[in-house]
Amino acid sequence: MNPTTTLRLGTLVTLLATATAQGPDLLVTYSQPETTLSGSGGTVLRWLWPNEIAHLEWSNGPCSSLSAEKWSPRTCFHTMAGDENGDGRFWNATLFGSIDALCQKMPLSPVAGSANPRDVFWSPSAAMGNNISGGPSLRPGDVGRIVRDVFFQDGQVEYFMRREQFNQVLGLPLNTPIDVDAIAWSPNYGVFFSLDADIVCNTACGPTLVRDGDLVMVPATVIAWTSDFRVGAVPPSSAVVIYTEAMIDGMVAAAGVTNRFGACIPNAIDLESLEIDWSGPALTLVPCTGSPLSVPSFVFSTETMTGASLLTTAFGGQIYNGLCGPTGRACGFGPTFGPQLGIQPTSALVGAPSYVNALMSAWTLDHVLEAQTPVMNVWPLGAPAAAMQIDYHSPYAFNFVFIEVVVPTVAPSLPAFPFSLLCFPDVYIPNLIPHLPAFGTFGTIPGVAIPPLWSGKVLFQSVGFGGSGFELSTPLVIDVQ
Predict the structure, then answer these.
(1) Which of 121, 320, 337, 455 could form a disulfide with 345 if both were Cys (CB 3.0 to 4.6 A apart)?
(2) Residues 303 and 394 in one domain
(3) Where does residue 165 rank: exposed (0-12), middle (13-18), buried (19+ CB within 10 A)?
């Protein structure tokens, strides 16, 4: 990397650090099915699944809304991916298995860095089918996203870092099956990640047992970035373990946080999520290679941290203080229940069962649609409109829902720019066939009547009036069969 590029990237990272130090919102996934703290107006949006992304909008108010809310529902992923497994349906309840890691493209400011489901990268625990995208699709060990490519083909996969590149830096055969459990990155620091299982690698330090609780670094100096700051190329055996599992264990113990039952957590077992803590100090570490590495502080979670707490590596391990307060309960003060991360506890005595499975700081808004019944088995008689119910969540007081009938493979989309700069960036409703208005934050509207002897794919997308003028919701497809 030449000095000019390094200086330019340093300026961008400084801007990002300044923005996020003010108290970033978070995108998260949970390890178990959970319920939003707010109840989401009684809609199906209150159910948070491990293969969906939720949003903690702490900056609203600030702290006027502490609940996690659904940000990218399964139905959004299904619409973007299409009939990825070739079974004739868009709906696939177990798509991705779970979302194990999250990261975003290079953000430049709280506005320019506003996240949406098109620009966030994730790593699945189960491979997405390749019926639409072609091989190798999105696999465990990949960190990627679903895009519309330059040829306007929807349902394609773009990678931040491929499984083969992770294997390359670990000195493993390129086809080694691995599962990336956590990731964070910065163009000046590099890429940081953790794996789901122990594996013997050939790192920059030679043969190394990389544990599932280790934090591994690929220094920025060895990465060839693409023009849009994805990992383009990496040399073999260039990764370094910067924090061993034993060191992460020590940070967890030092933080003094409780689990969902109120017991002090003594260890990590498995490092599960990761994000750079821009409010914490950077350190200079000297690994076995002898070359000093500059390393930031990290927000993280582990398998043991039920009740959905977060810690920071800063100062040897502490409970992370988000914009709205501590994200875990200190030892001696009862269980970590879950409301601090926006979800309901199991009971008045026991916290939520989840640990945070994936984590990313973001500036974004929730504008989503989800069907109460994503697959309607109504052939040959059809069904009245009341049989199809669409739940919505919008940041705007007035919205209008539009409808399309789409092809059975993958729904086509178009860029919405210069509109929808704060929410979903693509139009799936080019014909603007009007359906119904939708008022208020949460609500339910009926769908359309299904005539006898009809089957197909019905797509809905809402337009909110505000923000950049017109702000689009996540798209939704209902399979009618």
Answers:
(1) 337
(2) no
(3) buried
